[in-house]
Amino acid sequence: TPAERVAGHRSFPPGFLWGSATASYQVEGAVHEGGRGLSIWDTFSHMPGKVDNGDTGDVADDFYHRYREDIQLMKNLGLKSFRFSVAWTRIFPNGTGAPNQQGVDFYLRLTDALLEAGIQPFCTLYHWDLPQVLQDRGGWENHDTAKAFADYAGYTVSKLGDRVKHYMTMNELRTFVEVGNQEGRHAPGLKLSRGRLAQLTHHVVLGHGMAVQAIRANAPAGTKVGVAENPVATTPVIESQEHIEAARKAFREENAMYLTVIKEGRYTEQYLKRLGSDAPKFTAEDLRIISSPMDFVGTNVYQPAYVRADANERGYAMAPPPASYPHMYSPWLTIGPEALYWVPKLVSELWDVREIYITENGTSSTDTIAADGHIYDTDRVMFLRNYLTQLQRAVSEGVPVRGYFLWSLLDNFEWADGYDKRFGITYVDLHTQKRTPKLSAKFYAEVIRTSRVA
Ligand code: PNW
């Protein structure tokens, strides 16, 4: 029938991996249990004034104890895959040295339970919770941190390797580098000078590359390795040839010290020229390690960064949002569904990437419980429907996106915004820990069931 044919146009390919994502410090809680060491987020969240409402991740969603119940939620949704992160300080409480078997055991229990439920685990090795002892020695400013990270990554995959087939080294390099070490709004709360920040950034991408190699050396053949970056989501203001070309140029330049150096093995001339004497010190060997081949690229996609063509030497200019531009409950989350079309398209075209995952996409909402007990997060449903429609557009054109991870399964500790900015499709009552699926959970379950978006 015509109705079916229309619906067919909105379909995702068979085997498309529908998932959801979380991160250790945002959901686990149990910060003093199982031999866990302290991370920079334990320190930072307990510093007065750093997190809204004085919130911390001490308890969070108590996922450390309630993961079985939460896997049941995943099954109810029909989730095919679950992206979680390992807390470095559960595995190495002191960052390096002696491993902690209790920490390993937790992730073995978690991944066993996921597999038993028929859910594929995707594992992120670093979602911002750097061991505090390593920060005390300079954190990512210290070259040794890259080596410590690779050692931890190699050890962890040697333990999880028979269960986990997909690893991401790091989550959002750009966010933790810039928000944590330049703006000081995230842990460790530093405001480094331009030169020091550039050197720190170099150690971060070097740590990524060393971890890629350590994972390959310690995981079974066939293990897939990637990254979960949130590139500046350059999106053409108008979809005409000149602006599309501008967005393509902008994607490489705006992400020069993150995805571009990882994929190309060199810093762009513009980046080095712009920094002048503040440019990082590095060797040719560093660049070779940084660009160690990956099996897939994961991108977190939230807000667009509109780009227009310009006659300047870069060939493009940014078009920042006007004050009236609509955004979701988080003010930074300006709405631009086409970002979910352009990011994977540009990644695949620029670097001939054959396997792409959307490792995060989703939104905050005020999420109040209505008198009838339901949570009508129609704003989140609107957001997801529009973004997924653009993702479907990319997939239908042959852009090789293999899966999508909705951020997030549960309301959780939203970093400096504390618990007020709820990103879950499941409501969590932070006093009782009761979970209640929101309207968006029903929406997402239907997307998964039919593998299409209306
Ligand atoms: C990502 N911004 O963070 C993270 O990977 C998640 O841990 C987080 O909860 C989620 O997105 C929602 O925020 C971001 O200011 C934090 O542009 C801030 C920004 C983007 C992403």
UniProtKB/TrEMBL annotation:
GO BP term, pick one: cellulose catabolic process
Residues that coordinate or bind substrate: Q26, H127, N171, Y302, W407, E414, W415
Principal EC category: hydrolase
Record keywords, A-Z: Carbohydrate metabolism, Cellulose degradation, Glycosidase, Hydrolase, Polysaccharide degradation, Signal
Reactions performed catalytically: Hydrolysis of terminal, non-reducing beta-D-glucosyl residues with release of beta-D-glucose
Pfam families assigned to the protein according to its UniProt record, in alphabetical order: Glyco_hydro_1
GO molecular function (one): beta-glucosidase activity
Catalytic site positions: E172, E360
GO cellular component annotations of the record: cytosol
EC number(s) on file: 3.2.1.21
Matching PANTHER family: GLYCOSYL HYDROLASE, LP05116P
NCBIfam families for the chain: BGL (TIGR03356)
Family under the similarity heading: Belongs to the glycosyl hydrolase 1 family.
Protein name from the UniProt record: Beta-glucosidase
